[in-house]
Amino acid sequence: EEKIQKYPYTVKKEGQTDACAKKTRRRTTNVKKFSLFRSDNFVRHLTDQHPVKYAEYCSLLSAELSEKANLALNPRVPTPFSDRIKNFFSVTYMPNLFDTNTAKMPNYSARDQKTNRIEIALEGDCNEGENPLVQLQPIDMLWIGTSHFATGYSHYLNSDNTSTSGVALPCLFDFRRRGKVGRIGLCGNDGSKFPYIKAHLQRHIAEPYNNMDITLECWPDENIIDSRAHVDALATFFSGDACAVFTREQDSFHIAFDCVKRGLHTLMHSSVLKNLEQHKQICIAARETGAFSAIENYLKMDPIYSDARCRIAKLGKFNYLHCYMTLPKESVDVLEYPINQKPCEISSLLNYYHIDFHVWASKGVARPIRVTGTLSSAVPSESEQNTAYTSTLVVQWENFEDGSLGTAVYSSASVDQSNCSKKREKLYYVGENGDLNISPGQCGYEYNTNSNGSGTTYPLYMKYSTSSGYFEGQVGYAYRSLESFVNGARKANAYKNSSLSLDGFFSSLEDNLATSAILEAGKLSIENGSKMYCISYDGPQKNIPTNIVCLS
Does the reported pTM lie above 0.85? Predict the structure, then answer.
């Protein structure tokens, strides 16, 4: 009331009506905030309201003042965080945004703007030791291997099938659209396949999806067969670039080893490392060059298995595990294994995924110590002798806490005898404080069309359908697995530290040594009449295997 009386809304003089009274505004202590400042209005205000002060100011500006006097008159106060903000909104996310020669914003589509904003938000969620304002540059990537997994093309399948878009190349093309990957190379042995592969990519990737650049550099040249084409391809890539070795040839280890020695961040297929000694050599080479290297296992990105791993950590000491995985004959043909690949090696590759998952989930809890392998050879016909085998590995584990023992049984079949076209898998785990049963089922659904007949799709693994015209496979765990590797390689370049590239889903190469030890011991046991092999740990680290010895 006192303020209102002191500062009324109107000031009324004697003999003046209310209508003629001068209206005034009550004083306020609120600070006025302006969303826009125009210097021309401010100069006009100075010339009209403060002519004397403005004239003095202009005379001072026109005088030849010393640098010290000029700084005293106009102190240069930097804008807080201006450099960090500019680096954060870098050309990686919004090119030309800070280009002074560009008068207008770049012409992004609504979806591209949305993608960029999501990208920035995700990069801000950093792990310990990471700086959210560090710019992650795109990397060049070479993919070695032209299998169905990479390209979607296979002479075993009908090219009209919409499920043959592949996995690797659609992901890499989308990474390039999102600014994560720059140059993309594809290397194989037979150059005569590339015209068919490019036509396949045009039909199944470039045409169905918007803004998908399918530009590729291919080795060897068309109509040339060269088993050493990877040498020419690697000569065009440099340290800090990325490479994926997904070829199942017998020399795949030497290719991967050459990539790591060159300083390339390398993602390897499970078939690359044939034994424990090769795994150790890759570890040493990666440690010397600082390259981020990992072995691909898409099960770690599967939300079912990822959640199960978190629950296994709360079940205490390991007691028992039983798992199996089967693939139909058609899928085995599509895998395109070398003719001289042994049946036990083909089956052990299927066992790899569950074995590696168990090693990943049992880190710090238990370690494998003894392995026995068996092979079932009852097959329907002689024509399937090269693939129709079921392998089983029985592994004894030792708990770190008290030395108690647990048993794991891993089974895999390269031919599903039920004549079903779906992959089947199951895992049952028993711990000290409980158990869990993973039974994903078919993980997809069936559909029928008049043109292509019946089919099965697995959108949780890889989503190919789109409702917006853009590629929408980012939700699949196959996509996320490759994206984690690409992000890890970019972080290794930005922070100069490959250890920061591990995001919880990719294990270090040292942690994967136990997986290679189990697979090698199982292979030796199968080839030598199911003899038992012991995994020894003679080094300073109790979870790093050093040797494999036959016990019988």
Answer: no
